[in-house]
């Protein structure tokens, strides 16, 4: 949906690294992990309020199910 009163620019970069260890001779060992990072940037120019907003968010995580 478009709003002529708000000009918005969004940029997102995500990187993920997956790692797994499951040796065939050790059936009991099955280890997985994912390391990830996301950078998000949102810029808004609100014409009705004469206001400019900028939001930056960076998230990082490690998942080991």
Helix content: under 10%
Helix/strand class = mainly beta
For the largest beta-sheet, the strand count, sense and barrel status come to: 3 strands, antiparallel
Strand content: over 45%
Strand order of the largest sheet: 1-2-3
List keywords for this structure.
65 residues; mainly beta; three-stranded antiparallel β-sheet; 3 strands; 0% helix
Task: Provide structural commentary.
This protein has a domain at 23-64. It is mostly beta strands and 65 residues long. A hairpin with a 4-residue loop joins strand 2 (31-46) and strand 3 (51-63). The protein has strands at 6-21, 31-46, 51-63. The protein has a 3-stranded antiparallel β-sheet, with no helix packed on it. Helices cover 0% and strands 69% of the residues. The chain is built from no helices and 3 strands. It is rod-shaped.
Quick description:
This protein has no helices and 3 strands.
Write the layout of secondary structure elements.
Layout: E1 6-21, E2 31-46, E3 51-63
Antiparallel strand pairs: 1-2, 2-3
